[in-house]
């Protein structure tokens, strides 16, 4: 895929404009979005992603469009999993609902910056060293196993990292929030509010999730343009999705298991591709492994979509049964 500098520039300008509009709206009126408002924004961003993929289909063919759709779906699903941790962080620090939008938006902007850096580094590594697929594949398989063991994160299991603990001890912090501001004045002193600690927690969480998501997208496509746009579209509308899903997040109890299957599948796919292009002297004598199959993009899309759909359906069925059981027990 040959993407000209003008196409890159136009894409960056368009996506930046959309993000600035979003930033301008939330900056003017911090509030908790209604279901209707959240639905409209999420629908808009999903529609833009689908239209972008259609444009790629017309310009570069179905294979490129399929890579984008598969990458976007994978990154979108991983971004939804981010929301579980965001919910825990918001609850742990008691962030008022009307100010959670700002926290989410800053978190999304931080994620974009971090993922942009990882994308550039990953693309540079892949262009120079094809064996990096072994590392990416092993990392994704390791992540998948851990995700399957842990399941969905729980507030009681959330532990503050070193940076959060340091900020609590070293920074002069106020006890209460002052709107969405990160600094305030108390008794003539300038103090940081708990909002700063929340931002640190969100930022470090973004960093951890970026380490998972970038190898996953490179397991689907090695085109930097597709990797970047899939990530941006996956993060667009994430804060509105947070409020739209609301309590539904608690019902997606099997989503982590579905994502574990997806990450494991992509990890195996990366290892197979590394074997097919092998040039490491201590693997098969430095020769390509002829039996390593190439997994086509349509099969990857089918597996990912089917797994996520099955995990979502199973989660909703299980949560519905649990609610009916709880209601029945309460009536006794």
Q: How much strand content do the residues show?
A: under 5%
Q: Unreliable runs, pLDDT <50, ≥5 residues?
A: none
Measured on Cα atoms, how large is the radius of gyration? 22 Å
Q: What string gives the helices and strands in order?
A: HHHHHHEEHHHHHH
Number of strands: 2
Helical percentage: over 70%
| Biggest sheet record | 2 strands, antiparallel
Q: What is the mean pLDDT?
A: 80
Q: Which geometry do the CA atoms define?
A: globular
Q: What count of domains describes the coordinates?
A: 1
The helix count comes to: 12
For the termini, the CA-CA separation is: 64 Å
Which structural class do the helices and strands define?
mainly alpha
Strand order, main sheet: write it out: 1-2
What labels would you give this structure?
two-stranded antiparallel sheet; mainly alpha; about 325 residues; single chain; about 0% strand
Please give the structural blueprint.
Blueprint: H1 5-28, H2 35-60, H3 62-93, H4 100-128, H5 132-150, H6 162-170, E1 183-186, E2 189-192, H7 194-218, H8 224-235, H9 238-245, H10 248-251, H11 255-276, H12 297-331
Antiparallel strand pairs: 1-2
Helix pairs in contact: 2-3, 2-9, 3-7, 3-8, 3-11, 3-12, 4-7, 4-8, 5-11, 6-7, 11-12
